[in-house]
Q: What sequence folds into this?
């Protein structure tokens, strides 16, 4: 998410391809897999509550990701035992996890450590709030975000950066509520037909 393009014929790319092939061994084409992952949360009809998100983070997430979100270094000194979710080694401000609904779905179904997909620990509302809180923390900036989503009508409602096809502020695109944005997009789509 802050990396460089790998050469297609390089050792690392060959390793990724070999790993992907190994992961799919015995899986038929088109198979629908179950297990770890995400499904959409029941999205609250409100803006995210950063204060509640900070409390959920302190109570649930900081033990692994650190008080400041900078993760925990591996005991070997190389890499992280628990990844940073803020700061210079975190995902950048254009990554899919900066979309609060993506992050909330991931957090709800995979966090804290030990959570199973079928038995989430956090409520939808707490996952929504903590995802917004995490995404309010400092992180690397991705260049040229304005070039993402060239067809603005296809831009996700929770993309936290413009430009947008609607008149809602970036703050609402970042933290919600998203229902009014969706309604406006439906209205715009209907007028363009």
A:
């Amino acid at each position: 998410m802050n990396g460089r393009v790998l050469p297609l014929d390089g050792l690392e790319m060959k390793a990724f391809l070999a790993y992907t092939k190994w992961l799919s061994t015995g899986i038929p084409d088109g198979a629908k897999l179950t297990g770890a992952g995400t499904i959409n949360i029941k999205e609250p009809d409100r803006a995210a509550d950063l204060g509640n998100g900070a409390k959920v983070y302190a109570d649930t997430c900081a033990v692994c990701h650190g008080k400041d979100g900078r993760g925990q270094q591996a005991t070997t000194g190389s890499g992280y035992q628990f990844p940073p979710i803020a700061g210079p080694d975190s995902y950048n401000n254009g990554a899919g996890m900066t979309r609060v609904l993506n992050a909330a779905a991931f957090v709800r179904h995979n966090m804290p450590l030990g959570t199973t997909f079928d038995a989430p620990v956090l409520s939808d509302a707490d996952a929504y709030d903590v995802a917004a809180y995490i995404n309010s923390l400092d992180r690397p900036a991705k260049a040229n975000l304005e070039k993402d989503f060239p067809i603005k009508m296809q831009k996700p409602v929770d993309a936290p950066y413009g430009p947008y096809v609607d008149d809602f502020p970036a703050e609402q695109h970042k933290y919600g509520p998203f229902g009014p944005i969706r309604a406006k997009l439906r209205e715009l789509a209907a007028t363009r037909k």
User: Anything to note?
Assistant: The longest strand covers residues 80-82. The mean pLDDT is 91.
